[in-house]
Amino acid sequence: MATRNVSRRMLAIGAPVLIGIAVLAALVGYRGMQAHRSQGDPALLERIAQYGRTAGADADAVTRGKYLAAAGDCIACHTAANGKAFAGGLALNTPFGKIVASNITPDKTYGIGAWSDAQFVRAVKAGVAPHAKLLYPAMPYNLYAKVGDEDILDILAYLKTVPAVHEPITANALPFPFNIRLLMFGWNLLFFDRTPFQPDPKQSVEWNRGAYLVAGLGHCTACHSAKNALGGDSDYLEGGDLEGWHAPEISGNGYLGLGKWSVADITTYLHTGGNRVGVAAGPMSEAVTDSLQFMNAADLKAMAVYLKSVPGSGATPPAPLAAGDATMALGRDLYRANCAACHRANGAGVDAMVPSLAANPGVQAPGANNVIRTILVGGRGAVTGSNPTGAQMPGFAWKLSDAEIAALATYVRNDWGNAAAAVGETDVARLRHPLDADTQMQPHPALSSGAKSVAPSEAQ
Q: Gene3D superfamilies from the entry (predicted)?
């Protein structure tokens, strides 16, 4: 629910259908929900009891839980900007409205301090909080369902050690009908696969570990899989749109995915935020900074092995635009004047600092949002313990027009072995205002028409 932007028309069509399904599901599920409220899930309680005897004597449970909480990137969503760790309050902007992340500190009033082990596991893996409160899948319980109970309880053991924050959070801001939690019965009926992770006996232990992390705690599909009109996942790891960004395909596809990256390339990228091809930016930069850099090399390598094995979209490159095309010629001139100093004339960039633009699958993505927004407002690479520089690129919204940015983006997407659809002036205009990048260089009032422009700071 927290990713792909969809049209209001699709929502208007889908909402009544979902309401109808939700009502039917509610009739079937209400009695079971009431049983869970009064008695709990016997099978779950038995599993918790069996593990509890082990966990109670395991002095390393908190250490394991801290690692697993980092792998799940819990702090990213459950900590507001400048807020206290895990105290919630971060508003997640979804196509359905704003969903505010909950307080998961051990405070007994506003956090999870009064929750039992079974209640915590059920909330994380089934999307049902105490008192049968249905969670929205912006909290990816549909993916955490793949995580073993033992790992979830280790995370709880760690969360019980963080400082309790006695602060309420603001309410969600969801319009009707999405503010009706009963709808989640219908959503779960349509899109929630409760099947636990099953190792593939035909694959290696390493591959299965990678699959477990990607499908579960890593919740990679939350960003890197497309979403349908009702927020259900589709096109596994083939890329998706998120708040103006495009999360690229991360399959083994050689054109749009990771097929041309080695396992070492992927592992390095996940750990440091950069490699010989790309540098993590935007939401991926946050994921590396807050989560992936803290994972051990074996787990990151396992994820890389698994990701390269996913078949992906099967997309192949189109014919690149001709070098003599007028748009390409303008883009080339703009690149040489504004970009070549850092990205180099051949588009090769600087390893782990300035991304290579040559043969870069992210640059060639079906949507050019990432390229356009980076030219408009710039960006900063991930900051990690092993790569603390976090090189920053300035924005060019003040300097380049929509037409010029479109030409520059088109050129970058079609030179040095790249091939992708041309970028239109309207594509740039669509992003400029939402990014607060409306200011462009204007001619000095004293200059006649056609004279060279000056930067806003130079104008009196």
A: Cytochrome c-like domain (1.10.760.10)
